[in-house]
Amino acid sequence: MTDSQTQMRRGPLAGIRVLDFSRILSGPYASMVLADLGAEIIKIEPMGNGDDTRNFPPFQGGLSHYYIALNRSKKSLALDLKSEDGLRIARELAATCDIVLENFRPGVMDRLGLGYETLRDGHEALIYCSITGFGANSPHSDKPAFDIVAQALSGVMSVNREPGQAPNKLGIPLGDMAGSIFSLFGLLAALHERNATGQGRHVEVAMLDSMIALQGYLSQIYFVSGESPQPVGTQHPSIVPYGSYPTADGHVIVACLTERFWHNFARCIGRADLIDDPRFAAYEARLANRGALEPLIHEAMAGEGTAYWLERLTEFDVPNAPILSIGEALEQEHVAAHGLIEEVDHPEAGALRLVRGPILFDGEGASPATPPSLLGADTAEVLREGLGYSDSQLRALEARGVLSCGVTQPDRKQEVS
Hints:
Layout: H1 3-8, E1 17-20, H2 26-36, E2 40-45, E3 59-60, E4 63-64, H3 65-70, E5 75-79, H4 84-94, E6 99-102, H5 108-112, H6 116-120, E7 127-132, H7 147-154, H8 156-159, H9 174-197, E8 202-206, H10 207-213, H11 217-225, E9 242-246, E10 251-255, H12 259-268, H13 283-288, H14 290-301, H15 306-315, E11 320-322, H16 326-331, H17 333-337, E12 341-346, E13 350-355, H18 379-387, H19 391-399, E14 403-404
Parallel strand pairs: 1-2, 1-6, 2-5, 6-7, 7-8
Antiparallel strand pairs: 3-4, 5-14, 9-10, 10-11, 12-13
Helix pairs in contact: 2-9, 7-9, 7-10, 9-10
């Protein structure tokens, strides 16, 4: 991203500068959202291969799909943090930033000499965010944590399945993304507080804590009943009818969260008699008699196809939806109407389609994205314009292997690997 592109970016966080040491997903997603909101993101990457996700297939023009998805609108600075000069440069940059973001295991940044107490010395307005798997005081602190680990330990996998089937992870990486999302809450709250006090904060978020926080009513079922919720597939643990229902040629989603919707649904499927049936007349009755009600619904819907039921359910004002593939979801009219996909030009990968952030301000979304940078593409710009380094200094540091000012990208095949 050039300096002129940075100046063109707008949003509520314009003028906020973030030094991003994070990699893989939980940190990079958070910094990408900050970039969408107008912040300047300086992404520190290891020399050589950079963020590990640069190497995850499939690739477009040598650029990993994974890296593309999480690193738009950021500047890439390739730096050797194990060298004395590289460490000094990182500290100099931190002194110019509002936020430092990292997602290493607890203690790693302290051992590098880049921990919160070190970087806030003389910079008390600094907001420092640490996203970890388990937090510093957990019995799991030293264990590596990835999405599926957080999902497993949160209890989510135990209910994400059909009854009698093996536990399954969520199809989206929510274990990672939950840590990102809660870190953003903390960062924005800390920025608000700093505006009043001038003091920064150390924001700490654990992925496992975040996943447990997202259990919602499932945790309360356990607290109230003393029993863990059991898997019900696409159905709801306490609301009936709710879930995926078979049609003559597929499935449709029906969600009767209120009595009005239940009455509408019963009329829709030609079974208005069920409304006054004492087995199904109220929430608790339908839940207790789920085994009797579900076959009646299946029988009523089996004779017509999905398209018929989607139209009829809408006519009767019953919450409904088809079950779309990822591709169908991205190509649906809603996505186009909301402008959720934008196209940017990358110097090596060509035209990239990206999913935009969902937040609107005064009816407008984020600034147009800039493409993910090649490894080290912005090193010279960041150090020259941000810290006043001369070209001769940059050449000398590059010669010593402290940093990379060249535009580097692994040679990848165009096709899916």
